[in-house]
Amino acid sequence: RKRPTEDYDLFIRLAKAGMRAGRLDQKLIKQRKHPNSMCGSDWDNIKKDIDVMRNEFVQDLGIEATDYEKKLHIAFVEQNLSILNQYQFGEVLSWSNKIIKANSINKIYSSTYFKEQLYLRLIRLIKRKESKNLLDMIKLRQSAEFYDKRISFRDLLYIYRYR
C-alpha cells in the first residue's frame, strides 16, 4: 500500500531484514525540497502513519498492546519526555523488557542492536526524569544484564544525581 512515509517504511523493512543503521552528523549530499515534496507538508498524516508502523512493529513481535501501552511505546521511541513523565519509570522499564523478551523469542530484529537502542533510551529517560527514586535505580541495575550491560553503583549514583 502507498504510505506517506515511504522512507520510514523502507527503514523498518530493512531493520526486519537484519540491516543495521546509524546516524551520521556530517551531510553527505545536498538536499533540496521541491513544492510537491511530502516532507514537511501534511505532517499530521505522516505522523499518524509513523505511529501506525510503530504499533505494527510491536505486533510483529507478537505483542497485542493496549491503548495505554501503544501511547507509552510511541513516547518511548520518540523520547517524548512530556508524555513519558506521565508514566512511572518502572512501567517504561517493564514495557522495554517485554519488547526485548518478545524479540528474543520471535527473533525479528537484531538482538544486539535492539538491546543497545532500548537501553540507551532507558538511561536517557531516567537521567531526565523529574522524580526518580532508589527503587527505580535498583530496577535499572537488575535489568541491565537483560540488555547485556553492567552498571556500577557509581554510575547509578551519577544517574540519580544527574539534572
Short description:
With 163 residues, this protein is mostly helical. It has one domain.
Give a structural overview:
- The termini are far apart.
- The mean pLDDT is 86.
- This protein has 163 residues and is mainly α.
- Helix content is 62%, strand content 0%.
What is the general shape? globular
Radius of gyration: 17 Å
Distance between the termini: 45 Å
Main sheet specs: none
Mean pLDDT: 86
Class by SSE composition: mainly alpha
Helix-residue proportion: 55-70%
Number of strands: 0
Number of helices in the DSSP assignment: 8
Order of helices and strands: HHHHHHHH
Strand content: under 5%
What keyword list fits this structure?
163 residues; 0% strand; mainly alpha; 8 helices
Helix/strand layout:
Elements: H1 6-16, H2 43-60, H3 67-78, H4 81-84, H5 89-106, H6 111-128, H7 134-144, H8 153-161
Helix pairs in contact: 5-6, 5-7
